[in-house]
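Incident review: delayed structure delivery

Summary: a single-chain prediction request sat in the queue longer than the usual turnaround. Root cause was a stuck worker, restarted by the on-call engineer. No data loss occurred. The affected request and its eventual output are reproduced below so the record is complete for anyone auditing the incident later.

Affected input:
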Amino acid sequence: MSNSLEELRKEQQGSDMAEEPQSKNHTPSKDVEPIETREVKAANRQAAIEVRNLTKYYGDFLAVDNISFEVWDGEILGFLGPNGAGKSTTIKILSCFQPATEGSVQVAGHDVFTDSLNVRRKIGYMPENVPLYPEMRVREYLRFRAAIKGVPRSERSSRMAECLELCGIKEVEGKLIGQLSKGYRQRVGLADALIADPKILILDEPLASLDPNQQGYAKRLIQDLKGKHTIIFSTHILSDVEEICDRMVIIDKGKMVAAGTPEELANRYEDQHHLHAEVVGPFNDVKTRVAGIEGVLSVNATEHDGCIGLDIVTGADTDIREELSKQLLQNNWGLRELHTQRMDLADIFRKLTQAK
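Output delivered after worker restart:
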């Protein structure tokens, strides 16, 4: 086994740690903004990752189209888009696994194109399909990966113990990786990404193909890592972003179409207001009177439990709540409930990515 481990180590060193020569296809864009350390105004944080005018062609196919964004130190950023939007291509460029055609990227202050060895020392990368060695046992594999990644010998045992515990794989540390379920293999992949205690974690579809219980565990784990690590992960699952991300970047057909928190995007892209009211009164009269209020675009009324449910749509600059209350009071109709309904992330995502 020692000979095979040595061969694996040499093979892995060639792929993981060798300095990648700058691609002849990569040309710094003349229009690239100078990359400077920026601070988040509210939290006074610096950018851990800065992407400027990033472009990637595969032959004549434009996979990533001039995108720019930051990932702030200590935050969790969701990199969101439909299948085929360019998420994995971007992640691979950030992780030094692919060259770009144009643009600039700095990770932890190092340029991914000219200083990729130092970038790799600062990141933990977990690809969508984690390339594990099925014939190795979990503990053996993590020890091997710790050595490959330059973890000092005196620290390897403590790092392994911490990652085994953190990722919930201590109970399977003696098992062959090939005998593990998909969920446990994903956990081993995350432990691999964490083994060198990197400043930045780059995760490509880390929750894909997991069952709901496994997804729940992985989400809690990622949330627990917040603050100690800066995390960017790609996904097309909207609930993942809503539950665990501070901000999100949405791309579609290679272009960046939005960036911000869900609340910021709702404020930016909401062109209608939605109200829900529960009213006690005659069905037809209530619906007709509410539909006649100035600024109301549509009213959907349903009758249940002795009252009328009203879903009211108005223009974004229209607030009918005072007029609605006045109409109900004048007609002696009862009001059981009244609240606004904001656009959710699914609405925003569809608005930004549906084919026109």
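Verification: The CA atoms of residues 280 and 306 lie 7 Å apart.
Action items: add queue-age alerting; document worker restart procedure.
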